[in-house]
Amino acid sequence: MSKARPRPRRVTTSDYDADVGTSQMTTEEEDDFFITKRSDSGWKALNKLSQAKRGSVEIDSNDDSDLDDSPRRKKTKKSLFKTGKPKELPDWTREKVIDLLSSGDEDKSVINLDESEEVGATTPERNKERRIGRSPSLTPPIIDPAEKLHARRIVLEHMQATNHMRPRSPEPSFFNESDTDDAEELDPELIAIRTEARQDALQRGKSKEHEIGGIGKVECRVRLHPHPQDSQGKVIIYNFTLGRAESFESLFDEVADQSGIPRNNLIILHNNFKVYPTSTPSTLKIWAEAELDAYEEHVLKIIKEQEGRTQYTSYSSFSQTSNTSDTVPSSSQVDKGAESDSSQGKDNTFKITLRSGSRTITVTVRPTTKCSSIVSTFVKKSNLPPETAKKARIEVDGEKMDPDSEIGDADLEDGDQVDIVGLEH
């Protein structure tokens, strides 16, 4: 029976050099250890080879130790961060600094050489000076170019000229002419816009001045009426001068102060229409002179009751254009020979709507009002010639009424609508 073969031992390497050892063995030598079925002589040869290599490794390590008595350091990886003393700057950076800046009255052609300071040579005093002299870094405001500023001013001038505001001077004075003369020359398009805007403003100012009657003055004559039961009371007259575009605010204040009447109780009428403090003579179509009647509120009520009229018409209702309201006189007021009917008051009146084609007018009538008077009122309010009312008739539910008949015969109610037919246009 054959003797068991010993297992091959791992070849040890020297502790002094980690790079020298079995790592340098070729692949063929390593495979020899794992080949089976070797004879005893083969194992002996392999052992001799391994001992010979071990001896060569020890000799090499001894030679290295003779060169340097100190043990060998292990190689370390290079650090990613550089440490230690920084390298010195090259020689060209240590040349003298040339100061090309000059201030004050110094000659700009002189170049100053600073021999005392070098690049990289910083001192605490110099750092302190830098901190003190350093200004906060703030973002400067954006400065628009001159062309944009001029264009903006022209656009604003155009808007100012076309704005529908209260009347002002005809010539717009948004900015002086001297500013544009000294400024840079504008583009032809901007100059054309500016010229057109000024012409439009001038024409608009003239037309507005014509509409409101210019800047003339109006002489207002105010008559303050006393209480009707005051036998010693007299009419007091006040004279005022107002501009055509000026409100009646100051007139109300003056009359209230001079008469001693609280302003809230003061009522002023013009042609039996109420005048408000915010109104102006131009809005009331007053151009030169005006006769105004002033009353205390309770005094006016007493006067209206005595006259059989308990209300007065204000300018707010007078300003209606399409549908106007008016009181048609009764037959007693139209026909001079008829009996008067002054005892009838507000309770006996009602409103009807007159229609003829596209024209529509609302009137207030009494039951005794004749149809001819209603037709005449419609023709007058429609700005038609008086001759057109000769053949005109009132038609109610398809039936024509006689001109001499009263409107109360038609049994109409407040708000009913009747037609006017037979108008000669």
Description:
With 425 residues, this protein is of the alpha/beta class. Among the domains are: 217-310, Phosphatidylinositol 3-kinase Catalytic Subunit, Chain A, domain 1 (Ubiquitin-like (UB roll)); 350-421, Roll (Ubiquitin-like (UB roll)), CATH 3.10.20.90. The protein has helices spanning 27-32, 40-67, 124-133, 146-162, 177-182, 188-211, 249-259, 297-306, 315-318, 331-334, 371-381, and strands at residues 97-99, 112-114, 217-224, 236-243, 266-270, 273-275, 289-296, 313-314, 325-327, 350-356, 359-365, 393-396, 399-400, 416-421. A 6-stranded mixed beta sheet has the order 4-3-7-5-6-8. A 6-stranded mixed beta sheet has the order 9-11-10-14-12-13. A two-stranded antiparallel ribbon has the order 1-2. α4 packs parallel to α6. It is elongated, with a radius of gyration of 59 Å. Mean pLDDT is 69; it is low at 15-23, 104-119, 172-183, 209-213 and 309-346.
Low-confidence stretches are: 15-23, 104-119, 172-183, 209-213, 309-346
Span between N and C termini?
Answer: 156 Å
Q: Biggest sheet, in brief? A: 6 strands, mixed
Provide the CATH top-level class of the domain at 217-310: Alpha Beta
CATH architecture of the domain at 217-310, please? Roll
Helix-strand pattern: HHEEHHHHEEHEEEHEHEHEEHEEE
Strand content: 15-25%
CATH superfamily of the domain at 217-310: Phosphatidylinositol 3-kinase Catalytic Subunit, Chain A, domain 1
Number of helices: 11
Features:
14 strands, Ubiquitin-like (UB roll), elongated, alpha/beta, six-stranded mixed sheet, about 425 residues, 11 helices
